[in-house]
Amino acid sequence: MAAPFFSTPFQPYVYQSPQDAITPFQILGGEAQVVQIMLKPQEKIIAKPGSMCFMSGSIEMENAYLPENEVGIWQWLFGKNISSIVLRNSGQTDGFVGIAAPYFARILPIDLASFNGEILCQPDAFLCSVNDVKVNNTVDQRGRNVVPSAEGFLRQKISGQGLAFILAGGSVVQKNLEIGEVLAVDVSCIVAVTSTVNVQIKYNGPPRRTMFGGDNAVTALLTGPGIVFIQSLPFHRLSQRIARSVTSPNMRENPKFFIQIAIFFFLAYVVIVSSLILTDV
């Protein structure tokens, strides 16, 4: 007999911390996934605000502000969250928590102990964590690596020895780079890289193309050794497609509409100023 249409595939995993603590978890769903984490009495997880989907009755939830050295001014300037939620099992028996992706995304479990305790991710990639995990927002100080958007140069550094769950849109590809091996990836498609990977930004085409936008205008050259996680559908690309579909047809068929309006007002301004000058003379 065929499986019911509402059945959900899941992948059971068991995470063992450096302190030999065992934490079972399951990744549920196919597209917009949910991670279900089992918690023993007094165990806790830290998650992004608004990500809790369901939990057992013994779980208590509270807000916690990040330490000042983990927040940074860039996180505040670009509207990032400066708080997180702590989910703790206060009961006498085992409980569970379901943490959901905020959009059509896949959840990747990252054992930081296997990545030398550090990994660099795209902004807002962090979903939740178990045990000793810290999340910092860093800025690439090299001028050539600064692209004209907050999402381009604001990177999320996840460090520690615990288990972190990060988000990736669409399908996910993992590339293991050898020493000196170079991989070119669209900047928006990079989910995470290990700290040993060297990242350099390359602009495709003349500067005017980068200024006025365009697909694949900026490419990242990744040099090994290290591991790279690549996503096929970045969230901002999905949101742009949705925005275009709800825009009025006339504006969608004429992408130069705003430029034409700007030129019209500029010429009108020149005519008015010229007429005033001639009138005074």
Give structural notes.
- This protein has 281 residues and is an alpha+beta fold.
- The chain has 7 helices and 20 strands.
- The chain has a 6-stranded antiparallel beta sheet, with no helix packed on it. Strands 12-13-10-17-20-15 form a 6-stranded antiparallel beta sheet. A 5-stranded antiparallel beta sheet has the order 1-2-3-8-5, with no helix packed on it.
- The termini are far apart.
Strand content range: 35-45%
Order of SSEs, N→C?
Answer: EEEEEEHHEEEEEEHEEEEEEHEEHHH
Mean pLDDT: 76
Number of helices: 7
The level of helicity is: 10-25%
Low-confidence stretches: 1-10, 148-152
* Main sheet overview: 6 strands, antiparallel
The secondary structure category is alpha+beta
Primary descriptors:
42% strand, six-stranded antiparallel β-sheet, single chain, alpha+beta, Altered inheritance of mitochondria protein 24, mitochondrial, 281 residues, membrane
How are the secondary structure elements laid out?
Elements: E1 10-16, E2 22-28, E3 34-39, E4 44-47, E5 52-55, E6 59-65, H1 68-71, H2 73-77, E7 83-89, E8 95-100, E9 105-111, E10 118-121, E11 126-130, E12 133-139, H3 150-153, E13 154-160, E14 163-169, E15 172-177, E16 182-186, E17 190-194, E18 198-203, H4 207-211, E19 218-223, E20 226-231, H5 235-246, H6 249-253, H7 257-280
Antiparallel strand pairs: 1-2, 2-3, 3-8, 4-7, 4-11, 5-8, 6-7, 9-14, 10-13, 10-17, 11-14, 12-13, 15-20, 16-19, 17-20, 18-19
Organism: Stylosanthes scabra
Protein name: Altered inheritance of mitochondria protein 24, mitochondrial
InterPro entries: AIM24, AIM24_sf, Trp_RNA-bd_attenuator-like_dom
